[in-house]
DNA sequence: TTTAGCACTCACATAACACAAGTGCTAAGG
DNA sequence: CCTTAGCACTTGTGTTATGTGAGTGCTAAA
């Protein structure tokens, strides 16, 4: 699909206006405002052509034009003018990321908040993932009392998971201590696949020396492994959806919120990228709930931590160039911050 | 304020109708429907009196009547007819509370979800609190690696808090081990006030034997103590606010949501009770944001765990008798469940 | 004290109308 | 051949008038 120079200017102007004001854009407005001197009739003629290509639309037979999904797509791919982040926003990122964090996850979580503050949309952040198989760096059991045990698991990306579980009355303190020692000895330092294998084969047999029915133990270990394996993500500004979603449709809104609660579903549509910053518009998100939303995702490369994803969810009618600018800048700052963080605490 | 029998019947009917349909209630409707045989004119006369007492209101000069806050209050205090929970809801409570929980908090959290499902409103639950000063039952430091430490704190209500913190490069593994031993020896078993005192006096001095600037350590301990001391609460069905809040007013809605995020504020208006189940209507909640909301709170006595609170937040126009029935039943079931739970795991 | 009757009020729905913004089309001009 | 002035046409929006229905307060009679 090849557009003439003038058609491009017109389409760009339509998208710019519409994302700014949210009102259909008419030919007269553009005639008075475009860089070149043309009459509104000429613009109307061009608009007919753009509409025939399904790049723009009318809301009713005599209204101004509005971009279609395809129009936004063309705009983002060919017409967008870069809008680098402004100094002020840059400062906010710098300042906020420079807090004191005691866990990598806290930085990623905070990032979701900053990103939503900057864009006034909803932000999602996924912590970095190593692409190789994850190994178990440490596995501890701490007996808190004679009926409560905390399982602590450290993976080689330095993530820590922990979970408390209770032990039924039938186990004595001594038995427990024995099991703690047994498991610490056997599993610490192993790779996760190995841990899972052992949990199903060797370990149960060993444990029965001390405890008759060890199923409670084992299911807890699996829980913790699960938690560690799952792609956790953080959300910032979820209430911002209220700002631009047609609030009459409560049902749809609730569906979206409950979708945002499900880790698996979210990472599904946040995933697969082309390039460092990618834009998905409306039905390109492949979920009918998001037909009027767009998703700007960016990857960040946090060195030893691996690669992570940040994303902004807003209306299809969003100022793409501004949001893309923010996401671009943010992915770089976040990467820098995490690498510094890694060097400060992990590299020795 | 004394009402005649007939006035009571009329007021009750008005509240019942209005909470059911949300439409102003007119005199003709009531005339055809009340137990006694009276004309609409008579009812109108009575209504004038009820309105003079500020128990009911008109939405405009020729509309039917609507209860005022004072009217709801009178209804709840004098006119309400008990509506015990139905078998089906009862079953749901039983079944859901009978899951397998590994932490007392999980039960309290789940309760918020059940309660909101049953009422279709928003539910808040506070975990039980012992009213005496809390003691520190156990305090552990677990070195996960030579740069990460997990602090674990167990209070005498068997709550466990934990937090991970990083140690700057300047500390060696040996130093760390020494500090871990020191702190475990000195603080385990003490009461919280004592712990705090020691953290400010004795401990810093001791630690400096091993580490030059122990301020990082100490602030983390304080963080964890803080977390344990705070009244945590859980929310279920927060999105249900969308069902009955005038969704045009996005701003107010956001204020409410951000209020519900703040522990202190929430426990403030959930607190102070009269009796096992209490009802606060509109401005009685003492926060202008809730002028069109009512709050049904119930206490539950979980034996050794102490006493906790459950609450349902809905519109002033809610079916009080049904919701009160549910809260009443729930507080008892939850108490039972927690006592059983305690006996199974803690009492030996 | 109750009630039938009636005039009155007000929200709500509907239709009629003008208006503004925008369109497509046509015909003339560069 | 492209551009544009002009014009008829469409549609959303806002205003006004008008009718209807549910409800009220008041009065006068039972």
Automatic annotation (TrEMBL), chains A, B:
This protein's record includes keyword Transcription: yes
Cross-referenced InterPro entries: GAF-like_dom_sf, HrcA, HrcA_C, WH-like_DNA-bd_sf, WH_DNA-bd_sf, WHTH_HrcA_DNA-bd, WHTH_transcript_rep_HrcA_IDD
A Pfam family of this chain: HrcA
Domain Winged helix-turn-helix transcription repressor HrcA DNA-binding: 2-73
Organism domain of life: Bacteria
Residues of the Heat-inducible transcription repressor HrcA C-terminal domain: 105-324
GO molecular function: DNA binding
Record's keyword annotation contains Repressor: yes
Any one of the GO BP annotations: negative regulation of DNA-templated transcription
SUPFAM superfamilies reported for this sequence: GAF domain-like, Winged helix' DNA-binding domain
Keyword list, A-Z: Repressor, Stress response, Transcription, Transcription regulation
NCBIfam families: hrcA (TIGR00331)
Family of the protein in this entry: Belongs to the HrcA family.
Protein function: Negative regulator of class I heat shock genes (grpE-dnaK-dnaJ and groELS operons). Prevents heat-shock induction of these operons.
Protein name, per record: Heat-inducible transcription repressor HrcA
């Amino acid at each position: 699909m090849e557009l003439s120079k003038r058609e491009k200017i017109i389409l760009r102007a339509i998208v710019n206006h519409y994302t700014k004001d949210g009102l259909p854009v008419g030919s007269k407005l553009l005639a008075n405002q475009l860089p070149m001197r043309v009459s509104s009739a000429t613009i109307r003629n061009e608009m007919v052509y753009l509409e025939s290509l399904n790049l723009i639309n009318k809301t009713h037979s005599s209204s101004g034009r509005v971009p279609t999904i395809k129009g936004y797509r063309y705009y983002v791919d060919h017409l967008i003018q870069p809008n680098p982040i402004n100094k002020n926003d840059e400062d906010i990122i710098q300042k906020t990321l420079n807090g004191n964090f005691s866990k990598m996850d806290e930085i990623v979580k905070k990032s979701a908040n900053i990103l939503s503050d900057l864009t006034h949309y909803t932000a999602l952040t996924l912590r970095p993932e190593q692409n190789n198989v994850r190994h178990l760096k440490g596995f501890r059991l701490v007996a808190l009392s004679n009926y409560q045990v905390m399982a602590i698991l450290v993976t080689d990306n330095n993530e820590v998971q922990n979970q408390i579980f209770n032990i039924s009355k039938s186990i004595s303190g001594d038995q427990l201590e024995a099991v703690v020692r047994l498991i610490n000895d056997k599993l610490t330092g192993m790779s996760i696949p190995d841990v899972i294998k052992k949990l199903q084969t060797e370990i149960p047999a060993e444990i029965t020396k001390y405890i008759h029915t060890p199923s409670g133990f084992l299911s807890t270990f699996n829980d913790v492994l699960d938690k560690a394996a799952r792609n956790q993500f953080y959300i910032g500004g979820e209430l911002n959806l209220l700002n631009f979603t047609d609030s009459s449709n409560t049902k749809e809104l609730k569906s979206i919120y409950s979708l945002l609660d499900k880790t698996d579903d979210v990472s599904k549509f946040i995933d697969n990228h082309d390039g460092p910053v990618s834009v998905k518009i409306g039905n390109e998100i492949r979920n009918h709930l998001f037909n009027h939303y767009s998703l700007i995702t960016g990857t960040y490369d946090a060195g030893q931590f691996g690669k992570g994803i940040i994303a902004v969810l807003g209306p299809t009618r969003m100022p793409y160039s501004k949001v893309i600018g923010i996401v671009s800048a943010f992915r770089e700052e976040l990467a820098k911050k995490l690498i510094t963080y890694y060097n400060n605490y992990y590299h020795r």
